[in-house]
Amino acid sequence: MRVFVVGAVILLTTNAAAQSRWTLSAGPEWNQLAPHFREWGMRLRAEYDLTKPNRVFGMRLETGALWSPNQGFLYFDGASTGAVAQQKLDLMLGVNVSASPIPHARVAPYITAGVFGRQVWTNGSSYRSNGTYATSTYTRGDIIGTLGVGLRLRFGGHALQVELRRLHTGNGLTIGTRLPF
User: How far is CA 176 from CA 37, 71, 154, in A?
Assistant: First the structure.
Protein backbone atom coordinates (compact mmCIF):
# COMPACT_ATOMS: atom_id res chain seq x y z
CA MET A 1 0.00 0.00 0.00
CA ARG A 2 2.83 2.41 0.80
CA VAL A 3 4.41 1.76 -2.60
CA PHE A 4 1.08 2.61 -4.29
CA VAL A 5 0.70 5.87 -2.31
CA VAL A 6 4.30 6.94 -3.00
CA GLY A 7 3.89 6.10 -6.70
CA ALA A 8 0.63 8.07 -6.93
CA VAL A 9 2.23 11.10 -5.24
CA ILE A 10 5.19 11.02 -7.66
CA LEU A 11 2.89 10.76 -10.70
CA LEU A 12 0.58 13.56 -9.57
CA THR A 13 3.35 15.97 -8.53
CA THR A 14 5.29 15.69 -11.80
CA ASN A 15 5.12 18.65 -14.16
CA ALA A 16 3.11 17.99 -17.33
CA ALA A 17 5.86 19.55 -19.48
CA ALA A 18 8.21 16.75 -18.41
CA GLN A 19 5.69 14.02 -19.18
CA SER A 20 6.11 11.67 -22.09
CA ARG A 21 3.85 9.83 -24.52
CA TRP A 22 3.23 7.02 -21.97
CA THR A 23 -0.09 6.84 -20.09
CA LEU A 24 -0.86 4.37 -17.31
CA SER A 25 -4.53 3.69 -16.44
CA ALA A 26 -6.42 1.39 -14.09
CA GLY A 27 -10.01 0.75 -13.10
CA PRO A 28 -12.89 -1.70 -12.79
CA GLU A 29 -14.37 -3.75 -15.60
CA TRP A 30 -17.65 -5.67 -15.49
CA ASN A 31 -19.48 -8.16 -17.67
CA GLN A 32 -23.15 -9.26 -17.46
CA LEU A 33 -23.03 -13.09 -17.28
CA ALA A 34 -26.55 -13.81 -16.05
CA PRO A 35 -29.67 -11.70 -15.38
CA HIS A 36 -28.67 -11.06 -11.77
CA PHE A 37 -24.89 -11.50 -11.88
CA ARG A 38 -22.08 -9.27 -13.07
CA GLU A 39 -18.54 -10.53 -13.22
CA TRP A 40 -16.12 -7.87 -11.89
CA GLY A 41 -12.42 -7.45 -12.43
CA MET A 42 -9.64 -4.88 -12.46
CA ARG A 43 -8.04 -3.68 -15.72
CA LEU A 44 -4.54 -2.18 -15.95
CA ARG A 45 -3.56 -0.45 -19.21
CA ALA A 46 -0.40 1.08 -20.61
CA GLU A 47 -0.65 3.29 -23.70
CA TYR A 48 2.02 4.80 -25.94
CA ASP A 49 1.04 7.69 -28.24
CA LEU A 50 2.16 6.97 -31.82
CA THR A 51 1.16 10.51 -32.82
CA LYS A 52 2.01 13.70 -30.96
CA PRO A 53 -0.15 14.03 -27.84
CA ASN A 54 -2.97 16.59 -27.69
CA ARG A 55 -3.89 16.42 -31.39
CA VAL A 56 -7.42 16.31 -32.81
CA PHE A 57 -6.78 12.76 -34.09
CA GLY A 58 -4.50 10.43 -32.19
CA MET A 59 -3.26 6.87 -32.45
CA ARG A 60 -1.93 4.77 -29.57
CA LEU A 61 -0.35 1.39 -29.13
CA GLU A 62 -1.96 -0.16 -26.09
CA THR A 63 -1.56 -3.19 -23.87
CA GLY A 64 -3.65 -4.25 -20.92
CA ALA A 65 -4.43 -6.98 -18.46
CA LEU A 66 -7.60 -7.91 -16.58
CA TRP A 67 -7.69 -9.93 -13.38
CA SER A 68 -11.00 -11.13 -12.00
CA PRO A 69 -11.08 -12.81 -8.57
CA ASN A 70 -12.97 -16.01 -7.83
CA GLN A 71 -16.68 -15.11 -8.05
CA GLY A 72 -19.85 -17.14 -7.95
CA PHE A 73 -23.55 -16.90 -8.73
CA LEU A 74 -26.70 -19.04 -8.50
CA TYR A 75 -29.01 -19.76 -11.41
CA PHE A 76 -32.18 -21.69 -12.21
CA ASP A 77 -32.55 -23.22 -15.67
CA GLY A 78 -36.05 -24.67 -15.33
CA ALA A 79 -34.93 -28.17 -14.30
CA SER A 80 -32.46 -27.53 -11.50
CA THR A 81 -30.52 -24.84 -9.71
CA GLY A 82 -26.80 -24.43 -9.92
CA ALA A 83 -23.81 -22.43 -8.82
CA VAL A 84 -20.79 -21.29 -10.79
CA ALA A 85 -17.52 -19.83 -9.53
CA GLN A 86 -14.70 -18.71 -11.76
CA GLN A 87 -11.50 -16.71 -11.91
CA LYS A 88 -10.27 -14.99 -15.07
CA LEU A 89 -7.12 -13.35 -16.46
CA ASP A 90 -6.72 -11.76 -19.87
CA LEU A 91 -3.95 -9.97 -21.76
CA MET A 92 -4.59 -7.57 -24.65
CA LEU A 93 -2.42 -5.84 -27.25
CA GLY A 94 -3.68 -3.56 -30.00
CA VAL A 95 -4.11 -0.17 -31.59
CA ASN A 96 -6.50 2.54 -30.43
CA VAL A 97 -7.49 5.74 -32.24
CA SER A 98 -9.13 8.82 -30.73
CA ALA A 99 -10.68 12.07 -31.85
CA SER A 100 -11.05 15.18 -29.71
CA PRO A 101 -12.72 18.35 -31.02
CA ILE A 102 -10.87 20.59 -28.52
CA PRO A 103 -7.61 18.77 -27.65
CA HIS A 104 -5.88 21.70 -25.89
CA ALA A 105 -8.75 22.64 -23.56
CA ARG A 106 -8.55 22.09 -19.77
CA VAL A 107 -11.45 19.64 -20.13
CA ALA A 108 -11.15 17.88 -23.48
CA PRO A 109 -13.77 15.25 -24.36
CA TYR A 110 -12.85 12.54 -26.86
CA ILE A 111 -14.14 9.38 -28.49
CA THR A 112 -12.04 6.30 -28.97
CA ALA A 113 -12.10 3.02 -30.93
CA GLY A 114 -9.65 0.18 -31.09
CA VAL A 115 -8.86 -3.35 -32.23
CA PHE A 116 -7.10 -5.75 -29.89
CA GLY A 117 -5.79 -9.28 -29.84
CA ARG A 118 -6.81 -10.87 -26.53
CA GLN A 119 -5.84 -14.08 -24.75
CA VAL A 120 -8.17 -15.20 -21.92
CA TRP A 121 -7.51 -17.80 -19.21
CA THR A 122 -10.49 -18.96 -17.11
CA ASN A 123 -10.59 -21.40 -14.21
CA GLY A 124 -13.99 -22.35 -12.82
CA SER A 125 -16.33 -24.89 -11.33
CA SER A 126 -20.07 -25.51 -11.29
CA TYR A 127 -22.49 -27.45 -9.14
CA ARG A 128 -26.09 -28.39 -9.94
CA SER A 129 -28.82 -29.51 -7.56
CA ASN A 130 -29.12 -32.82 -9.43
CA GLY A 131 -25.72 -33.74 -7.99
CA THR A 132 -23.41 -33.03 -10.93
CA TYR A 133 -20.19 -31.15 -10.28
CA ALA A 134 -17.71 -30.01 -12.92
CA THR A 135 -14.49 -28.08 -13.04
CA SER A 136 -13.15 -26.37 -16.12
CA THR A 137 -9.99 -24.61 -17.10
CA TYR A 138 -9.76 -23.18 -20.57
CA THR A 139 -8.01 -20.57 -22.63
CA ARG A 140 -9.04 -18.82 -25.81
CA GLY A 141 -7.71 -16.15 -28.09
CA ASP A 142 -9.80 -13.68 -30.03
CA ILE A 143 -9.81 -10.34 -31.79
CA ILE A 144 -12.09 -7.77 -30.16
CA GLY A 145 -13.14 -4.21 -30.87
CA THR A 146 -13.64 -1.41 -28.38
CA LEU A 147 -15.59 1.84 -28.41
CA GLY A 148 -15.44 4.49 -25.73
CA VAL A 149 -15.71 8.06 -24.56
CA GLY A 150 -13.39 9.94 -22.27
CA LEU A 151 -12.24 13.20 -20.76
CA ARG A 152 -8.71 14.56 -20.52
CA LEU A 153 -8.49 16.94 -17.60
CA ARG A 154 -5.62 19.39 -17.19
CA PHE A 155 -5.12 21.33 -13.97
CA GLY A 156 -2.00 22.92 -12.53
CA GLY A 157 0.38 21.22 -14.95
CA HIS A 158 -1.12 17.76 -14.37
CA ALA A 159 -3.00 15.61 -16.87
CA LEU A 160 -5.68 13.13 -15.88
CA GLN A 161 -7.62 10.82 -18.20
CA VAL A 162 -11.03 9.27 -17.39
CA GLU A 163 -12.41 6.79 -19.91
CA LEU A 164 -15.49 4.58 -20.24
CA ARG A 165 -15.18 1.77 -22.79
CA ARG A 166 -17.25 -1.05 -24.20
CA LEU A 167 -14.92 -4.04 -24.59
CA HIS A 168 -16.55 -6.88 -26.54
CA THR A 169 -19.25 -7.98 -24.03
CA GLY A 170 -18.06 -5.98 -21.02
CA ASN A 171 -17.65 -2.39 -19.89
CA GLY A 172 -14.68 -0.70 -18.26
CA LEU A 173 -13.98 2.59 -16.48
CA THR A 174 -10.33 3.61 -16.13
CA ILE A 175 -8.53 6.59 -14.66
CA GLY A 176 -4.98 7.35 -15.74
CA THR A 177 -2.20 9.87 -16.02
CA ARG A 178 0.85 10.48 -18.19
CA LEU A 179 4.05 9.02 -16.82
CA PRO A 180 6.96 11.35 -16.00
CA PHE A 181 9.60 9.64 -18.18
Answer: 28, 26, 12
